[in-house]
Design brief:
Elements lengths: L2 H38 L4 H5 L11 H25 L5 H26 L7 H27 L6 H11 L4
Helix pairs in contact: 3-4, 3-5, 4-5, 5-6
């Protein structure tokens, strides 16, 4: 083997070694770069994907209060309409009311969370406390209705419902 052939093999070997090092460096940089991208992603999104809170964020505490109060009135109105329209006579009607109550409980809890994150100041604090008390009482009212529908439907459902409204100051 001549010295030229030996020199050519060494030169090719060095080229392969340099290519291997460059490819390895590129792979390492890619892995490190990808891990930084994952690290910088916001962490709050995974809670919403599992059906967590659906609270609204407003920059103005007054807007938060108005929105929560309007949605609370809609929740009460919708529940009253559903309870009026469904006679508690068979199991399918009871299941429909229970499902509606469960959805209303979740929405009411979301409204309470929105109020908790509303950051009221000054005279707004007392309005927030009043709204929070209304939502809390509505939550107790919903729990009582849910418990009431768990038992055998009674002919006095409407009367019991009226008593619960008075008990929890729901108008």
């Amino acid at each position: 083997m001549s010295s030229n052939e030996k020199f050519g093999k060494d030169k090719n070997k060095k080229k392969l070694d340099k290519k291997g090092i460059i490819i390895t460096i590129c792979i390492v940089v890619g892995i490190i770069g990808a891990s930084f991208i994952v690290w910088f992603l916001p962490q709050g999104n995974n809670q919403n994907s599992t059906g967590g809170n659906n609270m609204m964020i407003f920059s103005n505490p007054n807007d938060t209060l108005i929105s929560v109060n309007n949605q609370y009135m809609l929740l009460k109105s919708e529940l009253n309409n559903q309870l009026k329209d469904f006679p508690i006579s068979n199991k399918s009607n009871i299941m429909q009311i229970k499902n509606s109550i469960n959805a209303t409980i979740k929405q009411n809890n979301d409204l309470m969370q929105t109020l908790l994150h509303g950051n009221p100041h000054g005279s707004m604090v007392s309005s927030y406390v009043k709204s929070m008390n209304n939502l809390k009482n509505f939550s107790f009212f919903l729990d009582d209705i849910k418990n009431m529908t768990s038992f055998t439907p009674s002919s006095s459902f409407t009367k019991d419902l009226t008593l619960l409204k008075k008990k929890w100051s729901i108008s």
